[in-house]
Amino acid sequence: MSEVELSVVVPMFDEQEVIPLFVERLRPLAAGWGCTYEVVCVDDGSRDATPVLLQRLRREWPELRVVRLRANAGHQAAISAGLARARGRYVVTIDADLQDPPETIGRMLEVAREEDVDVVYGVRSDRSTDSAFKRVTARAFYRSIRALSDVDAHVDAGDFRLMSRATVDAVNALPEHDRVLRLVVPALGFPSASVDYRREPRAAGESKYPLARMLRLSVDGVTGFSIAPLRFATWLGLLGGVAAIVVLVYAVVAMLLGDTLPGWTSTVVIVSAVGAVQLLALGILGEYVGRTYTALQARPTYFVAHDSLVDAGTAPTVPARPHVVPVRTVPEDGSDDDLAPTADEPPPARGAGGFRA
C-alpha cells in the first residue's frame, strides 16, 4: 500500500445524522491541504445507516476509506483500529460530531512541519458549550493523573491530535489492553506542540459517551498509568493498624479503670470502618489484577470485518504493529536453554491489536 502524506482517522458509531455535515465541511478543507491524504472512517459496529452512507460517499470521494469493525469495540479501540491501518506520514484523529473543528487540521499540519515536532495537541481554549459538570470533572481527572503519575497530560486536550508516523508506530507497538490514547501519547514523551481552538456544540445526533463510559475511561486511565491507588490502599491498611492499636490501648485502660461497660455503637462503628477499608483495598487490588488478567489473555480488542482499501479475498489485513516470530535455536546437546528471541528480534507484541475476521 502506497504511503500518503496525511491520514485522518475518524471513529464513528451510529452517526448517520452527522456524517453528511461532517463530509460537507471536511472535503473542501482537505482539497486545500496541498498534500496527498486519506480519510479513514472506522465504523465501530454501527446499528443505523452509518455503513451505508459511508459506502455511498466513498463512490464520490476516492480518498474516503471505510474500515468496518465486526462488533462495537468502543471509542478508543476504534481509534486504535484506524491508527493500525493509517498510511500517512502524519495521522490526525478527530471525532465526527464536529465539536472539534476540522479547520484546525491544517494549522496542526503547519505547526508539525514548522516546529518539527511529533505530536500536535488540539487544546480547547473555550469549553463553554460543555456542561459545567463535564468541565469540572474533566479538569479534576487530568490534574489527578498529573499528580498521581509522571504523565504530563494536557488538561483541556482530548483525542483530537496530530501524530507523526514515528509516534503512530510507537503507539501501535504497545501491547497494553484498554489503552487510553489521550494519556498514552503524552506518556511517550515525544516532542510536541499545541494548537488552541474553540469547542463547538455537537452538530447532530447524541453523544455516545455517557457518564458510565466516562467513569470507565477514568478508571482505565488511573490504573493504567499510576500505582498510587495501590499505595493508597497500603496507607489505609497502616492507618487501620494504628487505629486498632489505639482502640486496644483504650480498651486496656478502660478495663484497668473498671469502666468496661460494653458499647454497641462504638463496636458497630469500628467494625464498619475496618470492613469498609478492607473492601476498598480489595477493590483497588481487584482493578489491577483484572488488568493483568486481561493482558495475559491477549485477546484482540477489535475485529475488522471490512477495509475498503483491501480487495476482499486477495490480501489479508495485517495489524500495523509488527508481530515478529522469534528465531528459536536448539543447542547441539538438545537442551532448551536458548529459546529466547535474538537481540535484533524483539518478542512479538501482544495485546491491543485487532485481526481481520
Describe this structure in words.
The protein is α/β, with parallel strands linked by helices. The protein has one domain: Spore Coat Polysaccharide Biosynthesis Protein SpsA, Chain A (Alpha-Beta Complex), CATH 3.90.550.10. The protein is 44% helix and 15% strand. It has helices at 19-31, 50-60, 75-85, 104-115, 132-148, 165-172, 181-188, 211-225, 228-256, 264-297; strands spanning 6-12, 37-43, 64-69, 90-93, 119-126, 157-164, 192-198, 303-307, 355-356. The protein has a 9-stranded mixed beta sheet, sandwiched between helices. Helix 1 links the parallel strand 1 and strand 2. Helix 9 runs antiparallel to helix 10 (264-297). It is elongated, with a radius of gyration of 26 Å. The two termini are 20 Å apart.
Largest sheet: 9 strands, mixed
**Number of H- or I-type helical stretches:** 10
Q: In angstroms, what separates the terminal alpha carbons?
A: 20 Å
| Helix percent band | 40-55%
pLDDT averaged residue by residue:
76
At CATH level 2, the architecture is Alpha-Beta Complex
The CATH topology? Spore Coat Polysaccharide Biosynthesis Protein SpsA, Chain A
Strand-helix topology:
Layout: E1 6-12, H1 19-31, E2 37-43, H2 50-60, E3 64-69, H3 75-85, E4 90-93, H4 104-115, E5 119-126, H5 132-148, E6 157-164, H6 165-172, H7 181-188, E7 192-198, H8 211-225, H9 228-256, H10 264-297, E8 303-307, E9 355-356
Parallel strand pairs: 1-2, 1-4, 2-3, 5-7, 8-9
Antiparallel strand pairs: 3-8, 4-6, 5-6
